[in-house]
Fold this protein.
Amino acid sequence: MTNTPILLREVRLYGEGEPVDVRVRDGQIAEIGAGLDADGATVVEAGGHILLPGFVDLHTHLREPGREDTETIATGSAAAALGGYTAVFAMANTDPVADTAVITDHVWRRGREIGLVDVHPVGAVTVGLKGKQLAELGAMSSGKARVKMFSDDGYCVEDPLIMRRALEYARGLGVLIAQHAEEPRLTVGAVAHEGPAAARLGLTGWPRAAEESIVARDALLARDAGYRVHICHASTAGTVELLKWAKSQGISITAEVTPHHLMLDDSRLETYDAVNKVNPPLRETSDVAALRQALAEGVIDCVATDHAPHAAQDKCCEFAAARPGMLGLQTALSIIIDTMVRPGLLTWRAVARVMSEKPAQIVGLTDQGRPIEVGEPANLTLVDPETHWVVQGDAFASISDNTPFEGLTLPGQVRLTMLRGRITAEEGKVNAL
Ligand code: DOR
Ligand code: ZN
Ligand code: ZN
């Protein structure tokens, strides 16, 4: 399928240097230079805004199949495109669980039909996410979806022997295992970070050690397997120290951090509003500072949203009964600007690294997170860094509206997203196939 050529007029590549024009044709970047002729192309006046490679989210919950009342592949894809994403990895904790190629291929096919973002299904590591028996990783990885990443996210692969086997199989297949690091014996009944705030409010605590003990263990398992492991949603200063140590030993370990863990802390618990309930929980200001520093220094490799839509009845209820999780796709960039770019911790060049290039490399996507150069696939995001907007959950493309950022004024907005040369979102509207 060919689309009309597009000329992005006056963009600043990675937010650097003088504005240039970028011509996109046949899904690729065809020409970059100053003052290019329209030459029949559709012209987008970009007004000096920042052009970045399209974002890649290694951690999204799309809820289809099973909870289409909270999100679907279609609505989640729209939220992703509006958030500047050109590829997302849809977690396996659906109903039924994505533990066979039938399910992973279905998710992949639906994503293709919708065409707003590349939806890569994540396969479960164990059958039914139960942690007892390895799922058929090989069948999923050789299916139509070519599953590249496996995770029991929502649950930890708790049994060290199963985790060891999973890494060994993953090595043979060349796929990624992503761990939700939570030692379940330490988090029985836990609903919030174990610290002074939870103690004061009478909430059962989720200690840092529950995450850190699994990060340490899995680093050692990766060392012995001679194969990489990826840590989902790092949330503590201790995890940062362990990642530093493991990397210094030459262990192949990568990690992501969520926008909410970079922005919010457990002072949010005061109101008992379950919109702030998330797993792992919001931690303390010292953890937030350590996570920011780690992302700036590359100890944490990338940003992932853990976009987790939930129905109102599962969020607007007593704290202990509420489900953990928050929306992320349409606020991620703005939170990164606020927490990392504005304070001088990341340049725009580095934003491209943590939101696009690194995640693509970690999971082995060869057509995303590419340099903005002639001949490369036109997966691009145009960002207006100056504007501000007020978060309103019910205005999001997601069916659910559980955002902890409701009412906040945030900096920066995605103006346009392009997937293989086709505009998927522009000025807050998606462009359906
Ligand atoms: O907060 C979370 N929500 N953490 C998880 O691990 C699962 C996720 C979900 O599926 O809602
Ligand atoms: Zn998780
Ligand atoms: Zn998750």
User: Anything to note?
Assistant: The longest helix spans residues 208-225. The chain has a mean pLDDT of 98. The radius of gyration is 21 Å. The chain has two domains: 6-50+375-385+408-428, 53-363.
